[in-house]
Every structure is written in structure tokens, then in C-alpha cells.
Design goal:
It is a single chain. This protein is mostly helical. The chain has a domain at 16-175: MetI-like (MetI-like fold), CATH 1.10.3720. Helix content is 78%, strand content 2%. Strands 1-2 form a two-stranded antiparallel ribbon. The longest helix is centred in the first third of the chain and has 34 residues, at 8-41.
Length: 229
């Protein structure tokens, strides 16, 4: 454990970067995944098929391949996101690869969010949407005001699983030079091979804490929904 305590600033920065990847990608995935779910259940056939194609493509593409595309192909195509490096948040300069990593995680995770949300929409009785149309609501209004609020109640458990998987998937960024938790753990282990068990346990505890916070937030949200009912 001495290696962790003597490099505790790096330990905190590593988990700070992991949490940053998770929060940014998680919010973006929830937004984009919900939009995809709406398109998948919507009445416009071409949008429905386009969303279904997106979900099928990204759910069956390894996350590593998406990272490789964002890290190598995107800069070649002229999209290197260097403009974000002038942005500073809390004394930390946003890196171009942080943005590319978030995009890669969002593209992948949003496909799973879409399916989780779509299952919630399908769990809402059809009569609810028909009632919305009967009082003059458009499809978008019916989804926003009637269907999605009810669907959100049903998707809390599967959405929690998707978000926990996202926490784990942030480790893929370590292979592309991001000094998040896994990359920092590897560096400390390489420099302090005799303390590898203590280093592993320290980082394992960090991941467990993050996962438990997400799980407890999900549990609190589920309890709140039950009380509201």
C-alpha cells in the first residue's frame, strides 16, 4: 500500500478521470439512447429502421474497435478535436482524446441504453399512448408527457446495469494513453512489483466505491418511484 499512499495524488487524479469519463459518457448516452428509443418506437419507418441499424451495428461492434476508429481514423479524417484543449475545468485542461474517448463510450453505450429504454416503453400499456392521442397530443408530446415518464420507472434496474458496465468500460481508454484508474494501477504495479497485491486492492476498493454509489443512487430512485406510486 505504500506505493499508493506515496502517490495518492495520482490515485485520486486517476479515479477523477475515470469518474469524468463515466459522468460525461453516461449523460450523453442517456440522452442519445433515449432519442434512439423514441425513433425505434416512432411511426416514421425510415427513422425506425435507421435507429434499429445503429443499435445492431454498435451493440455488435467491440468497444475496442470503436476506440481504435476514434483514436486513429478520426484524426486522419480531420476530426482531431484539438479545439477543446483550450477549455479548462477546475484547473484541468480537457484533452482531445478525453473527448474522443467520451464519444466512443457514448456511441457504444447509447445502443444498450436504447434497448433498455425501449423495453420500458413496451412495458407501458398501449392504452396510455392511445389516451394521449385521444386528448389531442402529438406523438412527441405523448412520448414526453405520458409514455417516457412511465417507462423510466421500469428501466431503472436494467439502466443501472448498463451504467455499471460503462464504469468498467472506461478502462479501455487506458490502452490509448488515458491515465485513468487502470492505466495508473498498471504504472504503479510496474514500478512497485513487490506491492502489486496492495496496489490491486486499493484500486479495486476505488472501483467498488464508485459502483456502490451508482447502485445506491439507483436503489434510492427506485424507492422514490415506488413511494410516488
Amino acid at each position: 500500500m505504500d506505493a499508493v499512499f506515496s502517490n495518492f495524488d495520482d490515485y485520486l487524479k486517476a479515479f477523477g478521470l475515470t469518474i469524468g469519463l463515466f459522468v460525461v459518457s453516461g449523460i450523453a448516452s442517456l440522452i442519445w439512447g433515449t432519442i434512439l428509443a423514441v425513433l425505434r418506437v416512432g411511426p416514421v419507418s425510415i427513422l425506425n429502421k435507421a435507429a434499429a441499424l445503429y443499435v445492431t451495428l454498435f451493440r455488435n461492434t467491440p468497444l475496442l474497435m470503436i476506440f481504435i476508429f476514434m483514436a486513429i481514423a478520426m484524426p486522419v479524417l480531420g476530426y482531431n478535436f484539438k479545439f477543446v484543449e483550450d477549455v479548462e475545468i477546475g484547473g484541468w485542461n480537457v484533452s482531445a482524446f478525453f473527448v474522443r474517448s467520451c464519444i466512443a463510450l457514448t456511441l457504444y453505450t447509447s445502443a444498450f441504453v436504447c434497448e433498455a429504454m425501449r423495453s420500458g416503453v413496451n412495458a407501458v400499456p398501449l392504452g396510455q399512448a392511445e389516451a394521449g392521442r385521444a386528448i389531442g397530443l402529438t406523438f412527441s408530446q405523448s412520448m414526453k408527457l405520458v409514455v417516457l415518464p412511465q417507462a423510466a420507472r421500469a428501466v431503472i434496474p436494467p439502466m443501472t446495469s448498463v451504467l455499471i458496465a460503462l464504469i468498467k468500460n472506461t478502462s479501455v481508454a487506458a490502452a490509448f494513453g488515458m491515465a485513468e484508474a487502470v492505466a495508473t494501477m498498471r504504472a504503479l504495479t510496474n514500478n512497485n512489483a513487490d506491492q502489486r497485491i496492495g496496489i490491486f486492492l486499493a484500486f479495486a476498493v476505488g472501483y467498488i466505491v464508485i459502483v456502490e454509489v451508482v447502485s445506491l443512487a439507483s436503489y434510492a430512485a427506485e424507492r422514490k418511484v415506488k413511494v410516488a406510486r
